[in-house]
Known about the structure:
Blueprint: E1 14-17, E2 29-36, E3 40-44, E4 50-54, E5 61-63, H1 66-70, H2 83-95, E6 100-103, E7 106-109, H3 121-127, H4 139-153, E8 157-161, H5 169-183, H6 189-205, E9 206-207, E10 215-216, E11 219-226, E12 232-240, H7 258-266, H8 269-274, H9 284-287, H10 299-311, H11 316-333, E13 337-342, E14 345-350, H12 353-363, H13 367-375, E15 376-380, E16 386-390, H14 393-423, H15 427-438, E17 448-454, H16 467-483
Parallel strand pairs: 8-17
Antiparallel strand pairs: 1-2, 1-5, 2-3, 3-4, 6-7, 9-10, 11-12, 11-17, 13-14, 15-16
Amino acid sequence: MAMAQGRLPFPGDYVWYDSGEAGEFTVPIGVKVKTVTEEWLAFLTEDNEDMSIPISEIHRLKPMNDSNVEGVEDMIHLDDVSEAGLLRNIRIRFGKDRIYTYTGTILVALNPNKNLGIYNKEMIKRYAGAKLSDHPPHIFAIANAAYEKMKITQANQCIINSGETGAGKTESTKLVLQFLAAVSGQHSWIEQQILDSNPVLEAFGNAKTSRNDNSSRFGKYINIHFDRTGCIQFAKIQQYLLEKCRIVQQNTSELNYHIFYLMLSGLQDSEKERLHLKDVDAYHYLVQGETPPLPQHNGDELRKVKAAMKVLMFTEEEIWTLFSILAALLHIGNIQFKAIEVKQLEASEVIDTDLVRLGADLLQVDEKDMMKWFTSKSTSTGRGDTVVSLLSTSQAVDMRDSFVKAVYAKMFVWVAGRINRSIQGPKQAAEKSQQRSRSKRNPVADTLSIGILDIFGFEHSDHGNYFEQLCVNYTNEKLQNFFL
């Protein structure tokens, strides 16, 4: 029951209580009145905790409208659309395992961190072809709305996922892809390849952070192309903003990219011997977070990733080359340097040259060249001359880490490109679409598309954010402004 303005509340009334405290995240809270006396008002908070205030502070109370008491599926129907009203509505629904709430055509989703059993084939059938208002809010409803509008208007659509790290953006993207693959009606190999691109990209681009065990550390834009009847034809993935610094440095309670741990736990002993690999604790790049590998970093998970790569037409040679590069980067990360003096100048040299040899052999480059890359730098004068400078030990470490980051980033770009070669479908169809889109006579391509943006989320670390995270936070802020 809501309290009327201008009177004392009755037991059972719901009211807003404003503590008057100043703070960036301080908002009035919803409370339920328990007892009212001449001197005190007693409440039950949303956390089921008892609190009371003297009757002299009744001015801190505000009546709560009925829609805010009961909660609504679409928040445009709330009588009080303040920040407090929106947060309470979401909280009420979340407490009932209703993790989805609409704000018009925007879907607000909360991660339940448990399986609710609401993503099966029956749910896909339920939402396929339905209107947003026909059923309770759901990620399938948003996917269906984009799909149906694309077919009806014959215009391209876009779905944007934005929010905090761990909010479920990557899982939402996978669910949208699952829905689109199911309703397209074709059930072709290309649909399976699109779905199998996720575990591969997650292995190379996701990692454990302090707040999320499977955080996407890169952004991706997936463009699914359909024919005019709504059947999937091909797709393309654009990746950007890979967090390269994670490869060489992790904060406490964080880990490197999943693929390193999957490789060490999942390869056969004979394969690890060929790559000269040991346990996780043996590698500098894997122990800085002082956190053990996750339970899912096991052989079964690696087999799933390799199976997905096979579906995407990766060859055995390509898969082995990727493992060789990953192993090389781990060995290179263990290279240490000692200070020396050359012609009265500070310089450095490698302590264990066997690690350089291992890294060079696996990368198929010259060992002496690699030694020079880490201990010296060449600068062009612009006049055709080159000046060679020797590096100190700290500079050599920076050069080593920069090299590793560059190699991993190039490898990640190659993996994404290799996936695109598979999911772009018949080359002739793609080329025909591109030619038609460039034609002045008929600028409309043969295909329609639904784009899905999955950018990794807001995150604030007590140790300070890396530059890449700063860029991501800024991008997410701009996306939020777009919604507003």
